[in-house]
Amino acid sequence: MTEAAPRRRSRGGGGAARRAERTSVKIETAKYIERNIPNFEVLSTEALEIIEANAETILEEVGVNFVDNPAALDRWREAGATVEGERVRIPRGLARKLCETAPSQFTQHARNPEKSVEIGGRNLVLAPIYGPPFVRDRSGGRRYATLDDFQKFVKLGYMSKWLHHSGGTVCEPTDVPVNKRHLDMLLSHMELSDKPFMGSVTDPSRAQDSVDMCGLLFGKDFVQDNTVMTSLININSPMTFDDVMMGALEVYAKNNQACIISPFIVGGAMAPVSVAGTLTQVLAEVLAGVAYSQLIRPGAPVIFGAFVSSIDMNSGAPTFGTPEASLVSYGAGQLARRLNLPFRSAGSFCGSKLPDAQAAYETANSLNMGLMAGVNFMLHSCGWLEGGLVADFEKFVMDADQLGTLHGLAKGVDVTTNGQAMDAIREVGPGGHYLGCEHTQNNFKSAFWKSDLLDYKPFETWEEEGSRDTHTLASNRVEYLLANYQQPAMDPAVRESLHAYVAQKKESMPDSFM
After folding, report:
1. How many angstroms separate the Cα of 90 from the Cα of each of 113, 238, 284, 502?
2. Cα angle vertex 491, ends 485, 495, to 5°?
3. Can you tell me the distance from the alpha carbon of 84 to that of 274, in angstroms, rounded to the nearest whole number?
4. Which of 165, 205, 320, 364 could bridge across to 349 with cysteines, CB 3.0–4.6 Å?
5. What is the 3-state secondary structure (H, E, C) of 163-203?
6. Once rounded to an integer, what is the mean pLDDT over residues 124-142?
7. What's the average model confidence in pLDDT over 361-373?
């Protein structure tokens, strides 16, 4: 008995240690994806040249509108475009020539340098949902978003291993005045996470606030010499550039901060129903937008954006995860690469009202398409529900978990000596098994991607644990991550200066909810 007792304690201690390791909280962020697989290309060289020629014809003959922006019209006129009223017609080749000064790849710096990302090339950076006014969770249902909801999403993003980016307006905190909420959102990204983030675009003055706050966080000189924000500039398709979005673009480009120039396309409503027609319009709009950024500051970092959905011709509602949207995104990726620009598209898109089978099918179609299309910056990669109207807490963690599969697929096939596994095949021989062989022992911890959410237990164990479905598991995961959140450290003087800036800006203007 006295000899056996230590052995029992030893085994128990080892098991306890292993259990502690499995259940301990690890705040990890995977490096941005570096693809070792080919892009999927659907368009021939001839088809690409046809679309490019047609896009130039649109710019030259139809033109684009720059609304309520006399300074933009003057810039275009000086660059050689024809301006009539608010219509700008761009001579063939001019926009493409202007786009040549935009970088093909750039670094977005995070306040934690280990989490900075490279946007462009063979890389893929994953960022969460952006913009919904509503949130949903299992206990509270669908409701207007609050600042508390927003901050919870930022915390979940920080705790999610496979997300590289904190995002921007993860949801609209409707309990904060419209003219002040950007300050709270920026402060939350800066304090509650140390991943890269996005700036405000809802007014040029708010874009300037974003730049000024980054000056406090990173240092003014650093901001002027480096990119620390990526921001979403939507084009009002078809072919209309409004003064608000262009005003924000002007602020960011002038200050060397990145903008996603992104047509907002619902096929059949904002663009033709055909894939080639939609691609032509997308390219024309992006060419004009990127070219304009280079008129502001040659060399300003920009991203070729393509947000694409189709439309249900019976209800008029947008649809997601469809083959037509995928074909547009694949083609847009090819066009972006021919322009030597980083590419933004795809996400966890779905039209479902709940994180159900429809949501899973449509989301999987869109996420996998994004990887194969060569996307470099994937906004909306987790949390999207109800056509983007809702940020869902459970779906956020479901999607964030599945982003790990994109990392695994992007690795490609290992054909090194270890990957070939010839020693293992020789060791095991006919009729054996590989569970105990040396190669398996050396590789089992990293050989297979493992979900932190999905259930792979035997039926009996699953039943004993309450027959929990994925929605229930995700709800538990949300609670676990928020309960174990650990705020990243920040220099107290920097925090104080940020809070003082926000307080001063809020005091300088009355509340507005319009």
Report:
1. 41, 16, 10, 41
2. 80
3. 30
4. 320
5. CCCCCCCCCCCCCCCCCCHHHHHHHHHHHHCCCCECCCCCC
6. 97
7. 97
